[in-house]
Specification:
586 residues; alpha/beta; Nucleotidyltransferase, domain 5; DHBP synthase; 9-stranded mixed β-sheet; 5-stranded mixed β-sheet; globular
Length: 586
C-alpha cells in the first residue's frame, strides 16, 4: 500500500511517502523552492517522492492531509467573531486564501497532481502524535503534542499502543505555550515561526536564576497553571487572536519597553527576557509532563509539535520528570505532520501493523557520482576526485585538523530542520576562532548563536553530562546537555556560554562515512568531536542539490567542498555568475 502524506498552507510545507508502512521518502518544499519555511502546496516535494520510488500519481492508494481545514476555519470564524470589530482587518486579509485554496484542498490536490483517488484528513495534533509514536521504538508510550495551534488544539495528551493511538485531553486556542514563546520571540525582534530557536540560544546569555531575574516573575503573570498540568494565558498581554502582531501594549509595558527593532543591539534586558521565557516554558512544560505521567503510568514518552524542537527543555525531560525513555522524530514541527498523516492512515485507519521504527533521517534527494561529475564538468569547476572511502576520510580529516571549514554534501538529504551529516558544514571545535568565523564569514548570522557538537554514540558520555543510555533523539540533534567542565577549553567553539552543547550522536550503521570522519579526527587530535552546522547561510534553506552547495561555498568563507567523492577548493575556482537558467538546469 502506498500513501502520500501532505502538509502545507501554514509553514514548512512537506510531502512524505510510505510504502507498506515504511517511510521511504520525505522532503520539505523549501529545499526545492529555496523559500525559507515555504508554505505553498509542496508540488516539488511530491514530485521528488514519486520519482525517488519510481512511481506515478496513479500508484498512490491514498493521499492524507495533516489537518482538517473546515474545523480550522470554524476556529478562525469563532476567533474573529469573538474579537470583532478589532479583528476585522486581519479577517479580511485571511479570507482570500481560505476561499481559493485552504477550503478547496481536495480540488487543489486533484488539479495540481492530477490525482483521482481518495483524499483523507487527519486532525493536526493527531498527525503530530502519529508522526512521533508510530515512528518510535516503543510498543506503548504516553504522547504529548505542543505547538502554536492546530485546528483548535494547542496541546494534547494521549497514549499509543501497538498500531493504535488515542488523544484523551486537549488545551484549546487561544491558550498556547507555543504562542507564548512566539510572542516573546516577536517582542525580542525576531521572526515568528522561524526564530524561536534564536531566543532559546540567547537565553543562555541571560540570568537563569528565577530568584534574581525580574522578568521571570513578570512573565509568570501572563500564564496561569493548574493542578492538572493545564494552563491558560492572560489575554490582556496578547493580540495574536485579533491582530497580525503578537505582543500587546500591556506586555510591552510589563517588560519595560517597546518591541525591539531588528536593527537594535541586543542588550542585557533582552537576554534576561529570553532567559525568563525559557524558564517559564520549561516550568510549565515539566508540570504538564508530570501530570501526564501521573495519569498514564507509562515509562515511555513521545513528543511532537513545534515545541518539541526546544532542545534545551528536551535535554532535561528525563531528569525533571518520572519518564524513563523519550522519543522525538527528526521533523517534529508541521513538516513532520505529513509523515504522521500518512502513518495514521496506514496503521490506524487501515489497521496495519507497525513496521520498524525510524532509524535515521536520510530520506531526501541524493545524487550519483555521474550526476555530480556531469554538473562539475558542465560548470567548468576545478576539482579532484578522491579514490575511495578511506581517501575521503583521510583528506577531510587532514583539512579539518588544519582548521579548514568544509562544506559536506553526501548521500540523501536529511528530513527535518537539522543538518545531520549529509548537508552539513564541518569544522574543528578545538579552534577557538571557529565560532566567530562561522557566524560572521560563513553563516552571516548573529554572533551569539552557538554551534552543535557531533560525536559517535559511544563517546557521548565521555564529553557530556547526559542521560544514560543516551536517548535516541540525540541522533537528530534534539537534546541539549551540559558539556563536562574539563572539555570546555578543549572544544570552545561548541561549548555555549552556559557550558552546554546541542548534542548530535552518530551510529556507524546510520552513516558510515560521517562516523569514520569523526573517529579518524579523534585519532589525529585526541578529540573525536566535530562542529556540525547546517549547510546554508542565514535566511536560506539548507542546500539540496550540488549547485546549491557550490554556490553556498563560493559566496562564503567555506574553504573546501566535499561533494560526494569530489573535492573542490574555493580558491581554485573563480566566482561564477548565477542566473535563473543555470539554477533551473540544476
Amino acid at each position: 500500500m502506498i500513501i502520500l502524506g501532505i502538509s502545507c498552507y501554514y509553514h514548512d510545507s512537506a510531502a512524505a511517502l510510505i510504502r507498506d508502512g515504511k517511510v521511504v521518502a520525505a522532503a520539505e518544499e523549501e529545499r526545492f523552492s529555496r523559500i525559507k519555511h515555504d508554505s505553498s502546496f509542496p508540488l516539488h516535494a511530491v514530485a521528488f517522492c514519486l520519482k525517488d520510488q519510481e512511481l506515478s500519481v496513479q500508484d498512490i492508494d491514498y493521499i492524507s492531509f495533516y489537518e482538517k481545514p473546515f474545523l480550522k476555519f470554524e476556529r478562525l470564524l469563532s476567533q474573529h467573531l469573538a474579537c470583532f470589530p478589532k479583528s476585522y482587518k486581519t479577517f479580511l486579509q485571511s479570507i482570500p486564501t481560505w476561499t481559493t485554496e485552504k477550503l478547496r484542498i481536495i480540488k487543489v490536490i486533484r488539479k495540481k497532481l492530477k490525482y483521482r483517488g481518495d483524499v483523507l484528513f487527519v486532525e493536526h495534533h493527531m498527525a503530530h502524535a502519529a508522526s512521533s509514536f508510530l515512528t518510535s521504538p516503543f510498543e506503548e508510550a504516553a504522547i504529548v503534542t505542543i505547538d502554536g495551534v492546530g485546528e483548535w488544539a494547542t496541546t494534547s495528551y494521549g497514549y499509543g499502543k501497538g498500531s493504535d493511538l488515542q488523544l484523551l485531553k486537549e488545551i484549546h486556542f487561544p491558550y498556547s505555550l507555543g504562542l507564548l514563546y512566539s510572542t516573546v520571540t516577536a517582542y525580542l525582534g525576531f521572526s515568528v515561526n522561524n526564530s524561536e530557536y534564536k531566543v532559546m540560544g540567547l537565553a543562555a546569555y541571560g540570568d537563569l536564576n528565577k530568584a534574581t531575574n525580574k522578568y521571570y516573575s513578570k512573565l509568570k503573570e501572563v500564564i496561569h497553571t493548574r493542578d492538572d498540568g493545564s494552563f491558560a494565558l492572560d489575554l490582556r498581554y496578547f493580540t495574536f487572536h485579533f491582530k497580525d502582531r503578537m505582543p500587546s501594549e500591556r506586555l510591552c509595558a510589563l517588560l519595560g519597553g517597546p518591541v525591539r527593532k531588528e536593527s537594535e543591539d541586543i542588550n542585557k534586558r533582552h537576554k534576561d527576557i529570553a532567559a525568563a521565557v525559557q524558564m517559564v516554558y520549561e516550568e510549565t512544560f515539566f508540570e504538564l509532563l508530570k501530570s501526564v505521567y501521573a495519569e498514564a503510568k507509562l515509562k515511555n514518552l513521545v513528543l511532537a509539535g513545534g515545541c518539541a524542537l526546544n532542545s534545551v527543555a528536551n535535554g532535561k525531560v528525563l531528569s525533571k520528570t518520572p519518564f524513563e525513555n523519550i522519543w522525538i522524530q527528526p521533523n517534529a514541527s508541521d513538516g513532520g505532520g505529513s509523515i504522521g498523516a500518512a502513518l495514521f492512515t496506514y496503521n490506524v485507519l487501515e489497521k496495519k501493523p507497525r513496521t520498524i521504527s525510524t532509524q535515521h533521517a536520510y530520506l531526501g534527494p541524493e545524487f550519483s557520482r555521474k550526476e555530480i561529475k556531469d554538473y562539475l564538468d558542465s560548470s567548468e569547476i576545478t576539482y579532484i576526485e578522491l579514490s575511495d572511502h578511506d581517501e575521503i576520510v583521510s583528506k577531510t580529516v587532514e583539512l579539518l585538523s588544519s582548521n579548514k571549514v568544509i562544506g559536506w554534501f553526501q548521500g540523501r538529504m536529511e528530513w527535518g530542520p537539522r543538518a545531520l551529516g549529509n548537508r552539513s558544514i564541518l569544522a574543528n571545535p578545538c579552534n577557538p576562532k571557529a565560532q566567530e568565523l562561522l557566524n560572521s564569514k560563513v553563516k552571516h548570522r548573529e554572533r551569539f548563536r552557538p554551534f552543535a557538537p557531533v560525536v559517535c554514540s559511544e563517546d557521548a558520555e565521555k564529553f557530556f553530562e547526559c542521560d544514560t543510555p543516551v536517548p535516541d533523539p540525540t541522533d537528530f540533534m534534539l537534546m541539549v546537555y551540559p558539556i563536562k567542565k574539563k572539555w570546555h577549553k578543549v572544544i570552545p567553539s561548541v561549548t555555549h556560554v552556559d557550558g552546554s552543547g546541542r548534542l548530535q550522536t552518530v551510529k556507524r550503521e546510520q552513516n558510515p562515512l560521517y562516523y569514520d570522519i569523526i573517529k579518524e579526527f579523534g585519532k589525529k587530535t585526541d578529540v573525536p568531536v566535530l562542529i556540525n552546522t547546517s549547510f546554508n547561510i542565514r535566511g536560506e534553506p539548507i542546500v539540496c542539490i550540488p549547485f546549491h552547495a557550490y554556490k553556498c561555498m563560493m559566496g562564503t568563507g567555506i574553504d573546501y567542498l566535499v561533494l560526494g567523492s569530489f573535492l573542490i577548493k574555493r580558491k581554485d575556482n573563480p566566482r561564477h555568475m548565477w542566473d535563473s537558467e543555470q539554477y533551473a538546469q540544476d
